[in-house]
Amino acid sequence: MRIIELFCVAFLCLCPMAWASSSREPCRSPSKTSGKLCVSTTKDDTIAWGDFKYDSTQKYLRFVEDTSKSNKTSHLDVIIHFDEGVMYKLDSKNDTCKKQSLPCHKHPMEVPADGTHVDELYLGSDDKSEQGLRVRMWSGNMTDHDSHHSQAGHYTMMTTSCGCITVSCTYHSEKNDLIFSFFNVETEIDDLQAFHLPDYCEGLELDEASDDHSFFDLFHD
Fold first, then answer.
1. How far apart are CA 78 and CA 63, in angstroms?
2. Is the pTM of this model over 0.85?
3. C-alpha dihedral over 178, 145, 106, 202, to 10 degrees?
4. Are strands 86-91 and 77-81 parallel, antiparallel or unpaired?
5. pLDDT tens for residues 194-206?
6. What does the pLDDT read at residue 221?
7. pLDDT tens per residue, range 50-82
8. What DSSP line would sit under the chain, residue for residue?
9. Residue whose C-alpha is closest to residue 180's, from 198, 195, 165
10. If pLDDT is split at 50, 70 and 90, which confidence band does 6 have?
11. pLDDT in tens, 76-111
């Protein structure tokens, strides 16, 4: 009987912990992050590789592709203002710029506010220090509630348990199957001018995109 009583006490103690984990609110990413971003398909084909800088307070992103790593002749250089729903595609060689609407504001740099906590576990091993990384897994849909999208994307994201830095994100939709991997991430940005628009981007007319246009479409073949 004593064993049964102890089991019941332990069960009652563990239940709130399990509930707290399953109902965990999405963590908040650092105010500024920068590093390397690799975008690949589920077939292990690298679509893009380059430097990213993200300001989670202003919701600004700069991504500059390194074509020598992705074996592409094209060069992707974008500045995105997510809250404003605007994306700028830059061509510094020709001093040209394209301003395009971005109705869907979600992206893999931080966990969406409606993300669902799935689990907390270790990448690698937790037996010894510096042999593993404790991460949290999140999932959800990448469809904005204020947009009428015909196609919804689903994501599974991993962030560091401490600091809420995105480690990876797998994104699936009818148009894309993408894997985002983040490397050498730092919680600072060495050049805040990276978010400033060059003179040749000023005064452009907005090119209206479809209602389901998102950051993920940058990597759509």
1. 5
2. no
3. 130
4. antiparallel
5. 999 999 998 899 9
6. 54
7. 999 999 999 999 999 987 765 566 689 999 999
8. -HHHHHHHHHHHHHHHHHHHHHTPPPP---SEEEEEEEEEETTS-EEEEEEEEEETTTTEEEEEE-HHHHT-SS--EEEEETTTTEEEEEETTTTEEEEEE------TTS--TT-EEEEEEEEE-SSSTTSEEEEEEEEEE---TTS--SS--EEEEEEETTT--EEEEEEE-SS-EEEEEEEEEESS-S-GGGGSPPGGGTTPPPBPPPTT--GGGGG--
9. 165
10. very low
11. 999 999 999 999 999 988 889 999 999 888 899 999
Q: Which two tokens stand for residue 109?
A: 């740099």
Assigned token pair, 95: 């001093």
Q: What integer pLDDT is reported at residue 128 of this predicted model?
A: 76
Rounded distance, CA 104 to CA 80, Å? 12
Rounded CA-CA distance 103/144 in Å is 8
Task: List the structure tokens of 91.
Answer: 């061509």
Residue entry with tokens 């560091």 = 160
Task: Pull the structure tokens for residue 218.
Answer: 């940058």
